[in-house]
Amino acid sequence: MADTEFDVIIIGSGPGGYVTAIRSAQLGFKTAIVEREHLGGICLNWGCIPTKALLRSAEIYHYMQHAKDYGLVAEKIGFDAKAVVQRSRAVSGRLNMGVGGLLKKNKVQVIWGEARLGKAGEVIVADPSKAPMQPQHAPPRGTLGAGTYKGKHIIIATGARPRVLPGLEPDGKLVWTYFEAMVPPEMPKSLLVVGSGAIGIEFASFYHAMGVDVTVVEIVDQIMPVEDAEIAKIAQKQLEKRGLKIKTGAKVSALKKSANSVTATIEQGGNKSELTVDRVISAVGVVGNIENLGLEALGVKTEKGCIVIDGFGRTNVPGLYAIGDVAGPPMLAHKAEHEGVICVEKIKGLDAHPMDKNRIPGCTYCQPQVASVGLTEAKAKAAGREIKVGRFPFLANGKAIALGEDQGLVKTIFDARTGELLGAHMVGAEVTELIQGFVIAMGLETTEEELIHTVFPHPTLSEMMHESVLDAYGRVIHM
Ligand SMILES: Cc1cc2nc3c(=O)[nH]c(=O)nc-3n(C[C@H](O)[C@H](O)[C@H](O)COP(=O)(O)OP(=O)(O)OC[C@H]3O[C@@H](n4cnc5c(N)ncnc54)[C@H](O)[C@@H]3O)c2cc1C
Architecture of 368-472 per CATH? Predict the structure, then answer.
């Protein structure tokens, strides 16, 4: 095979692309990955990882302010906003380099540049310095550059970008997307966050913890709209208790900009009000990067800004696949990774299982955290399932009390007839680490009986998972 010919070419090196590339190489495919900007994609550079670094600083700052609650003395507490951002960027940088190392170790060829599809089986790569997106890192050593490459299988993993709503167009200065929100030159005094999905709520939580006066506006009548309504309500109450202002069933209908502030018109329940803030974060969702890829010429089907695929990442065009954010929701890094692995294993002819979107966990790392998997109570009912619901509050868990984290809930939903675990929903400290227990349980098609007979270590927050299951079956112990 010539140097420019590969079994598999992947466009985009986000978590979907680079994990797929490594698995592809493990399967013995000659593999290349094309990237125009930064190894690791949005997740490592502008998404999952740098936000968690920011939120960690905010969390520690919060605990320092509450040192007295733990019998500790902390004086002259403060922060250096630049250093907080620098730490977050350094965390991203470290992982970005790590991805380069992993690709090299697995003998994946990196091609640096902006890719588009040519005729069937062809990827044309242009010099990234001439592309609208300027590379944020120098190409790793040993990379190939602009040229035409041939791939027996081509996987599109180009990710997504912020959704822009008319009237709420980001300008990089006063109206931010997650890009600007991640690297504030200084802390604003007041902030309006439009949209309360995971991205909006995480930024709201971060800035509020750093002393910013934050208002969140959400168009539907609950925050974190995909979450179970009861859990979202508890999260909202906790966020409000900390001082965040939240308006649900409300809409930002206009923004008026001044030199260093923005006045938003907010419509809620037939009333109009105005709010003047230093900065606005538009967090109204993301849309797939499907443009300028040459999809139209090949007749690739797209829908609502994403590429249409089957459960194995196959598009309607033979030899062409799509995975991750560009292939539709849920737009999460772990979904992208898993989708890519399934896709390339199917190409290899392995007995791959199609993606089951009902078993993809979702986590929001605000304070308190929110995590879930499977059906919400409302969705289970709407699907006509007869259900049993268990609940266990953090208030009754020894470890939660010892940690000083006694607010939250673990909720489980079972099929009343079969005992199948349909969904699990949590709000409170560290629930983003706990949820995987229920994800595994669902994956193994565990019933209530097996969960009840499982031994959970004491004292842990995980005991609440057990108690929640017991509660669903009228056997709760510590309540
Ligand atoms: C602020 C924020 C926080 C988030 N937090 C979480 C979280 O906690 N957990 C979670 O699971 N998800 C989180 N996400 C979502 C997560 O980042 C995405 O789901 C994930 O990055 C999608 O991976 P991907 O591989 O599909 O695409 P991306 O990560 O977007 O990567 C796509 C890559 O393709 C490259 N590319 C695009 N077009 C071309 C082209 N034509 N040629 C060459 N290269 C190209 C891009 O430069 C990019 O590097 C967050 C997102 C944001 C914005």
Answer: 2-Layer Sandwich (3.30)
Active site residues: 458
Bridge partners for 389 per DSSP = 413
Per CATH, the number for 5-54+80-161+287-357 is: 3.50.50.60
Residues in the chain: 479
Strands 147-156 and 320-322: parallel
Write down the pTM of the prediction. 0.97
DSSP track, 181-203: HHS-SS--SEEEEE--SHHHHHH
Tell me the CA–centroid distance for residue 230 and ligand 1, in Å. Answer: 30
Q: Name the closest-CA residue to atom 12, ligand 1.
A: 332
Quick check: 55 pLDDT over 80? yes
Q: Which atom of ligand 1 is nearest to the CA of 327?
A: 26
Q: Is the pLDDT of residue 111 over 80?
A: yes
What is the average pLDDT across 439-449? 95
Residue 124 and residue 116 in contact, taking contact as beta carbons nearer than 8 Å: yes
pLDDT tens for 185-212 read: 999 999 999 999 999 999 999 999 999 9
Burial class (CB in 10 A: 0-12, 13-18, 19+), 273: exposed
Which tens digits make up the pLDDT trace of 287-298?
999 999 999 999
- Contact yes or no for 151/29 (Cβ under 8 A): no
